[in-house]
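Lecture notes, unit on protein representations.

Consider one protein chain, 221 amino acids long.
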Amino acid sequence: MNRVLVSVEGQTEETFVREILTRHLWNLNVDLIPVVVSTKIFKQGKKFKGGLSTYVKVRNDVHRLLKDTSACAVTTMYDLFKLPTDFPGYATRPIGDCFVKAAYLETEFQRDVSHSHFKPYLQLHEFEALLFVNPEITVKRFTEVNKLSELLDIRNKFNSPEEINDGETTSPSKRILRLFPYYEKPLYGVLVAIDVGLENIRAECAHFNAWLTWLETLGRL
């Protein structure tokens, strides 16, 4: 079994990896292990986990994972939305096409870490984009089933859920919260993803699918 470490941004991503991706990849000889990024580490050993405050802390975490010689690869699952401004390539990132922007930032991230076992992944634009893969299924997790038409209206304005933009008020999470005010990411996010199903997510989210396809190849090393 080939061991792969994935640095994740928070509890929701950790659960998503463990409950969905790890189970899928296990059958392909890949043991994908999520590790929540540590935002602070004190001398006493106590850690505060979750969120990306500065790139320096992210880089330190990634290098720490790369020291684990039992892992054949290290990757990430961070939101493109609200990346730290000191992130490599942030100041020179291209405007427009979100896929080009994500690829550019991933390349700069990989170049800065500079390790043959490292391949980063940035989620477009944030985890909540996955809740727009199948609005009919998503809405069943909420009591406001009458919001289906509004959810569909948002989804149908974009070619894919990954393209739902990253504005302060128009990001996927902000749109979800306006429709479902009691939405809690750690609870509903993963439940909806499980309901929707991995194959449907892959079919709708090309950038995510490319990452998962690469992870699958690691089982053949």
